[in-house]
Amino acid sequence: MDECRRTDNGNRSQVKKGRSLMRGGLYLTAALFIIYHWALPGGRPSAGPAEHDDKTEMCLTPACIHASSEILYNLSPNYKDLDPCTDFEELVCGGWRDRHDLRPDQGDAFTGTIMAENSQMLLRHILEAPYPNASHHSYFSPMQLNPTGHSTDEANFNKLSAAYHACLDEDTIKQIGLVPLTDIIDQVKKSFRLAGTSARRSTNATSETILLLAKYGVSALVAPGTGADDTDPDVVVVSVSPPWTFGLPAKERYEDDALVKKYQGVLVDVLSKLNPDQDEKALAGVVDLEKKLAAASPNSEDRQDVTKYYNPMSLKNASALTPRIDLANIISGLSAGQEVNRVIVTAPKYMKDLQTILEETDESVLQNYFVWKAVQAFYRYVDSPVLKPYKRFVNELAGKDPESEPERWRTCVAHVDDGLGWILSRFFVEKAFSAAAKDFGDLIVSDIKDQFVKKLKAVDWMDDETTSKAIEKVHNIVQKIGYPTKSPNIMDPESLASFYSSVNISSDTYFANALSMSVFEVAREWSALGKPVDRDQWDMTVPTVNAYYNPPGNEIVFPAGIMQFPVFDVDVPAYVSYGAFGSVAGHELSHAFDSTGRHYDQNGNYTDWWNNATVKAFEERAECFVDQYSNYTVPGPDGKPLHVNGRLTLGENIADAGGLSASFQAWKVRASQKPNAHLPGLEYFSQSQLFFVSYANWWCGKSRPDTAINRIYTDPHAPKWARILGTMANSRDFRESFKCANTKPTCELW
After folding, report:
1. What span, in angstroms and rounded, lies between the C-alpha atoms of 460 and 458?
2. Distance between terminal CA atoms of the chain?
3. N or C terminus of the chain with fewer C-beta within 10 Å?
4. Has domain 19-113+433-472+538-550+561-595+606-737 been given CATH number 2.60.40.2080?
């Protein structure tokens, strides 16, 4: 997915080092197009049927008919009149937009959203049904693999069910009201008690409050975490970062005076009821503090850049950057006393500026800031009129209907997946995956590895020594397909029970359940200190419709959730799965050699392993992608064009191009060995063309303007439509398949 040292997921804060296909799951709209012309007279592409072999069979199975209908359903109604060389996104996705409206509670959606919601529906059916008896268990079942595990497996299921139904019980949640949130707020106020004068609170009070919130998974002022050391990827190291967000979605949003004023009004409205002994000035000052913190924080592209965020230093020197915060005390509290002498400070300048900001901030403002962080983290688990203004504001910020909420069951499925995801994964796999699917996924990824090795051998701008190491890196990449069998083994009920043994779940305490889940996740993260990096761990649960590359682990990971129709299907012609899932697999593998991944060698170590001439050649080619994608725009908050950040999205754009190319070549080789059947109703397209249709079909989507703006500032991925247009412009294979007049790629690396 994305390369970010810190991510704040609701009220949870964890170190992530991965390059992923998407971030948060969903994305964005258009402006500048690269114009090409038809190769044939009359402005029409070469018709697909002209390339068909009449002896090739037509696939008329239910699976093939389903796949054809999906593609036809999404195509523009006048797709035969459109030029694929200039309007491929409209050609493939025009029908998708016509037939898919955003719900009031959605900021954006794409094909992956539909897949995720199909998985959500399946999970709902699992959670609302009784524990499946033995006759309903599939091949992927602990009951088949471990017949003695029935009681533990059922107990695990009951834990899921209790968490789900506690979330569904809105009457009880409403009856309990603010009580559990005010309990957290009281803890914060007790930790950061005001003296009643202008006297400064002690360093200890500030640090203890940061620690209190951090144990609940809430980042305040700083975000400490653990993860693999980039230069020694078998060792777990502590990192200290700015929080990923400070209140508004991006630091740039604090430059919008009208938005900041509205946000400030909402904050004062809510906090005046939750912390009534504070005057309005102290409440309003929270937003001013956030604005200063955001301004001091790194830009989004610097947060993705290992050459800038990897700053190891002694804990003593790190603590000296911000004396007002006892960093050693915070880390000691989170690590249960585990000795820590070395930390990675991802933004030293922020830490220095934070000292000045704290010295200039009144203590009453700082207390309200801590209270507000708790509110922002836990408001989702509370039903009270007091919080309505903030819930409306969050919706408006994403362009949603202010009063909208997802269907309750969707919220509750996501809640269970977030907090007990590996148990839920065990039941998902049983319903939604197969041994054949796992084997096919492994085959596709292995085929793409082979093609990437060929690409590396053919590159003329990379020196021989670097090429040799790069090829070794490809061979060393670990591919994880479908689901984990260690840390935990989701096929072993005892392993799952042990993994979640400290998570306390009740069928009538939704807030307490969520808090227990968060406390568990933070404790689990910090318990890794003093142990080797767990290379069997996965960072995405099995139902997740996504994938990622982890540079220090040199691994590519594909949960079963993304290996579903229409992206992946073992029962349809291979060009469908290679075009979509194969390009995802190639995308993740390409991250090993993008603007970030290239810094990690064949063993996952962050080191300079390319010579200067090769680095220069890479950077010259990469700059083409920066310029290309910077020309794409969405409407900005002031109505003026807001440009895609070509540098922030560089790694993803390189990965899109490299992944598509490797997957196409892999499919061609496989198809030469075993010819593919044709899909009915799609005779207009050749099989090569349908490969690219399948790729683009995956990215069909739409977005609300405000969501698109937020994505531009924070998302290391380009908007969906740009991922189609830009990647097609960079694909020689695409341009040759559709016989475009100009077959030269706009930008090319791998």
Report:
1. 6
2. 19
3. C
4. no
